[in-house]
């Protein structure tokens, strides 16, 4: 894909709608916010020589095809049916019927089966009973004719919860169309275009749905993309060549689609036009969450802080169903326009909506709760205050839940029972009640580092995880997460390195150097004198409590490595001794900002002190919580 100009038209609401003079609703293209002539061409890289290039994959099992058992669950090799998305996508929009409304304080409408897929309810198209519709505060179900009625108020977003067995339409760039904004006077004047005036309340807002075997299936493949966050068009080009090119090649996620976890931009909201084109590359419906870099920083009041986001991507919070999974997407970024400070948590109104939304979910479903900032995490938010956090956990009590977060540009896989000191006041001393996943960023470490042959930067994240996307494979109510690094596949799940006294001295000398440190000479060579204080490291990117790492040295019987952070209530460990040399050697040499010196998924194997002089090979087998195995080798040398 290349970035090309599109026709300009006015944006009227978050559903990509405009209405002509006869009252007919038609799909509208977004206005071009940034002149294509100002775009910088992509820079072509010379490739990166990584210090640990001798680490090679010798055998592995793809997570998408793996068969294994662990913790009472079974992973099979069955996958969702692949479809030709270009030919089969349900393209359309929400139907907005203009005209005098006899009840100006109530919004009426119907959810209907759009048999001919023209986004307009025809005489032979029945309403659909029992579908959830909300105004962001109240939650109602449609009656036996598919009709709903909701209290109306200014600056509300009305949206439908996609039911299992149906799919909402998507626009030309794959944005799911399931909402309508009511903002009669439009957004206030701001730097970036917000929401144009929507006028009086429409006579009705109707939500078309198309029947779908893909969303009916109990097996779902869901793409989760953290923090695309391009600063400009050049970085959008990196994302194009990286994660989005990978998603363009993949199929099987047309039912569940892709959920992008916030920070669609990096404060410059004009880049949203580039993001729209990037999302047009994927093979499924796309949904979004706002992040702390999606804010209208010059908004005159808090209620308009995400107007440009809403005009482009849709509601700040909402829900949808696929298979036996209920996705609840929250906005837990709070912006105070008086102090110009960002805080975390959800509003009282959003919490009340969450309770009502969850109340409609059958007990035999799994809830996937997504928010830009993790509810709790290892690296950053162990003690950060979050408004209504306890209320969120209370609303989910007794339910089967997987929580998703982004924001931190790391990968974390926290399991039920994991403990950190900063969590006690929020969840008590029993540990996490369910799995919390922090999704790696598409941008990695903000597109920093040298360009790889594929045209995208190394961008290694703070915890040593490369940029990429997460996939949730959901079978009935069992959820299996897997990570795919940019330009790679599911077999690439770890990095191996050597932590030696010479490495730690180098680390301490250059750890604050952001202009690029000299590379450590021969990082995979150590003397016999160093053996007693050296160890092999395995950064198992999706590793967690319940995972194991085994090391076989020179063909000997495997020995289990020790996880450096047990998550049993201890403090977070940091520094050279807890770092990932494979990552830091690259990060420091490229002058990136954040180093992999603290992570919850690093394992350590102490090298025997009596190793002979010569070349040695370590074969490392990492086994995740589901029993999937991944194998890599590291060859190193011992000298006199």
Structure, explained:
There is one protein chain. With 640 residues, the protein is an alpha+beta fold. The protein is 13% helix and 28% strand. The protein is built from ten helices and 37 strands. The strands form nine sheets. Strands 3, 30, 32, 33, 36 and 37 form a six-stranded mixed sheet that branches. The N terminus is likely disordered.
Write the SSE topology:
Elements lengths: L16 E3 L5 E3 L28 E5 L7 E3 L2 E3 L9 H4 L6 E3 L8 E8 L18 E3 L4 E3 L5 E5 L4 E5 L5 E2 L11 E4 L21 E8 L1 H4 L2 E7 L7 H17 L8 E3 L11 H8 L6 E3 L18 H7 L4 E5 L2 E6 L2 E4 L4 E5 L2 H12 L6 E6 L14 E2 L1 H8 L3 E6 L6 E3 L9 H4 L7 E4 L29 E8 L2 E8 L8 E6 L1 H10 L14 E3 L7 E6 L7 E6 L5 E2 L1 E2 L17 H10 L11 E5 L7 E10 L5 E11 L1
Helix pairs in contact: 3-4, 6-7
Poorly predicted runs: 1-77
Kindly estimate the percentage of residues that lie in beta strands according to DSSP: 25-35%
Backbone CA Rg = 25 Å
Tell me the span between the first and last alpha carbons.
54 Å
- Secondary-structure-based class equals alpha+beta
What gross morphology would you assign? elongated
Structure summary, number of beta strands: 37
- Fraction of helical residues: 10-25%
Question: What characterizes the major β-sheet?
Answer: 6 strands, mixed
Kindly report the average pLDDT value.
88
Count of helical stretches? 10
């Amino acid at each position: 894909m290349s970035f090309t100009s599109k026709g300009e038209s006015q944006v009227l609401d978050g559903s990509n709608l405009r209405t002509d003079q006869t009252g007919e609703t038609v799909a509208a293209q977004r206005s071009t916010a940034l002149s294509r002539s100002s775009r910088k061409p992509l820079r072509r890289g010379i490739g990166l020589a990584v210090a640990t290039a001798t680490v090679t994959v010798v055998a592995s099992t793809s997570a998408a095809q793996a068969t294994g058992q662990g913790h009472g669950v079974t992973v099979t090799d069955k996958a969702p049916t692949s479809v030709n998305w270009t030919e089969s996508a349900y393209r359309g929009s929400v139907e907005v019927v203009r005209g005098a409304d006899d009840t100006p304080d109530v919004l009426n409408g119907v959810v209907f089966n759009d048999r001919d897929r023209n986004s307009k309810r025809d005489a032979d198209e029945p309403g659909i009973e029992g579908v959830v519709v909300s105004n962001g505060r109240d939650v109602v179900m449609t009656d036996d004719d598919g009709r709903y009625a909701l209290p109306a108020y200014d600056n509300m977003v009305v949206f439908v919860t996609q039911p299992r067995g149906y799919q909402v339409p998507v626009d030309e760039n794959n944005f799911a169309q399931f909402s309508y904004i009511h903002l009669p006077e439009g957004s206030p004047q701001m730097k970036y275009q917000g929401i144009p005036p929507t006028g009086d309340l429409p006579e009705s807002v109707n939500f078309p749905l198309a029947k779908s075997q893909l969303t009916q299936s109990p097996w779902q493949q869901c793409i989760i993309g953290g923090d695309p966050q391009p600063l400009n068009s050049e970085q959008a080009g990196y994302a194009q060549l990286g994660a989005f090119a990978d998603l363009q090649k993949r199929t099987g996620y047309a039912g569940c689609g892709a959920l992008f976890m916030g920070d669609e931009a990096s404060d410059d909201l004009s880049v949203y036009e580039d993001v729209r084109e990037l999302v047009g590359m994927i093979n499924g419906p796309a949904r979004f969450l706002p992040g702390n870099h999606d804010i209208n920083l010059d908004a005159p009041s808090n209620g308009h802080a995400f107007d440009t986001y809403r005009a482009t991507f849709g509601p700040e919070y909402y829900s949808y169903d696929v298979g036996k999974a209920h996705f609840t997407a929250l906005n837990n970024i709070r912006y105070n326009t008086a102090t110009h400070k960002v805080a975390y948590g959800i509003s009282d109104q959003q919490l009340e909506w969450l309770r009502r939304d969850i109340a409609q979910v059958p007990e035999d479903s799994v809830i996937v709760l997504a928010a830009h900032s993790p509810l709790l995490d290892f690296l950053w938010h162990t003690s950060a205050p979050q408004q209504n956090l306890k209320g969120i956990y209370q609303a989910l009590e007794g339910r089967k839940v997987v929580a998703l977060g982004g924001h931190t540009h790391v990968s974390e896989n926290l399991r039920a029972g994991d403990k950190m000191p900063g969590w006690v006041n929020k969840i008590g001393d029993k540990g996490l009640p369910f799995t919390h996943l922090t999704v790696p960023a598409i941008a990695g470490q903000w597109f920093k580092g040298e360009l790889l042959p594929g045209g995208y930067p190394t961008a290694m994240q703070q915890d040593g995880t490369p940029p990429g996307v997460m996939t949730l494979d959901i079978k009935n109510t069992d959820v299996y997460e897997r990570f795919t690094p940019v330009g790679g596949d599911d077999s690439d799940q770890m990095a191996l390195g050597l932590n030696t006294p010479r490495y730690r001295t180098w680390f301490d000398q250059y750890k604050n150097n952001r202009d690029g440190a000299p590379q450590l000479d021969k990082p995979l060579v150590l003397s016999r004198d160093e053996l007693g204080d050296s160890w092999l490291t395995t950064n198992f990117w999706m590793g967690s409590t319940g995972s194991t790492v085994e090391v076989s040295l020179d063909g000997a019987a495997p020995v289990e490595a020790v996880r450096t952070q047990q998550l049993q209530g201890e403090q977070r460990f940091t520094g050279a001794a807890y770092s990932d040399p494979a990552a830091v050697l690259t990060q420091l040499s490229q002058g990136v900002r954040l180093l992999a010196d603290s992570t919850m998924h690093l394992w350590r194997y102490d090298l025997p002190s009596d190793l002979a002089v010569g070349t040695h090979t370590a074969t490392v087998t990492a086994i995740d919580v589901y029993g999937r195995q991944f194998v890599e080798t590291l060859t190193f040398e011992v000298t006199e």
